Amino acid sequence: MLGAGWVAGCNGLRTIDSLTPAGHYLLERDVAYGPAPRQRLDVYHPRGEAPAGARPIVVFFYGGSWRRGEKESYRFVGEYLSRLGFVAVVADYRLYPAVTFPAFVEDGATAVAWAIREAGRLGGDPRRVFPMGHSAGAHIAVLLALEPRYLAAQGLAPERLAGVIGISGPYDTDLSSVRWLRAVFAGEGIGEEARVLSKARAGAPPMLLANGGRDPLVNARHAVELATRLRALGNRVDLRIYEEAGHGDILLGLSTTLAGNLTLGGDVLAFVAPEWSVAG
Fold first, then answer.
1. DSSP 56
2. Does residue 53 contact residue 125 with C-beta atoms inside 8 Å?
3. Neighbours of 31 (CB within 10 A)
4. What are the domain boundaries of the chain?
């Protein structure tokens, strides 16, 4: 597998983008979900009719240590998800130093609420909305499911989520104690408030937690420990560890042209729309 730095770096993302087909989806670009310049999202609409009824909606949040990233670099994710038949929403969110925790999680809640409200116009099912994220984005997506106050601020409850997909997320770390993240998670008690594992509770939405077995940045134990805790509380968690994948190249499993042996895309399909997976 290619290393984490290759995928995360600009050249790697540009290479993936250059190899990503564009003909089978319709792109709705730079839609505002809030007043801030970075509260914008892109919607990838699949062409053709859904296999049965309204389509699931997947709202994707990218990684970048809560400091960097742009939705345009993740066209390959939108393309792949729309190829599966989903309405794919790829969202920007505010970043440090403009904001600190929990502003980017609040943006995630606002983007998800937008998707639920707009589901009918998008051809999607408001009962089948799935936040999904990688790395910092996984932290955002999973926290939305476990800490009700973020969605409550949007007039929603986590029970409105059909499920959550977390890829390579840092769930069991006091992020305020990490030297290069202290400024992002500054403040009394913020470290524990941002620690996803401490938010584990009964009655959480179903989750698919995925991680690379060769991830040097976010060890697979984060996914394993969160899955273990949630299952002990009676929740459904599908856990997938891809032994040969690293932190960044796990996302190649969401590339139409570069997935190779990575089964992440198929696992996402089976989690979001198992009836389509069986039919396929």
1. E
2. yes
3. 15
4. 4-279
Place of tokens 């396929």: 280
* pTM (predicted TM-score): 0.94
Q: How far apart are CA 240 and CA 102, in angstroms?
A: 28
Question: Helix 264-272 to helix 75-84 angle, to the nearest 10 degrees?
Answer: 50
Bond before 97 cis per omega within 30 degrees: yes
Predicted confidence (pLDDT) per residue in 41-85, tens digit: 999 999 987 767 799 999 999 999 999 999 999 999 999 999 999
Given a contact cutoff of 8 angstroms between Cβ atoms, the answer to whether 226 and 204 are in contact is: no
Each as own residue / partner, the long-range contacts of residues 5-9 (CB below 8 Å, 24 or more positions apart, any chain) are 5/248, 6/248, 6/249, 7/248, 7/249, 7/251, 7/252, 8/63, 8/64, 8/247, 8/248
53: phi > 0 → left, psi -120 to 50 → alpha, else beta; which? Answer: left
End-to-end CA distance of the chain: 27
| Helix count and strand count (H, E) for the chain | 11, 8
Closest CA to 126 of 134, 118, 138: 118
Q: Which CATH number fits domain 4-279: 3.30.230.10, 2.60.120.10, 3.40.50.1820, 3.40.50.2300?
A: 3.40.50.1820
Cα–Cα nearest to 159, from 200, 111, 195, 127: 127
pLDDT of residue 14: 72
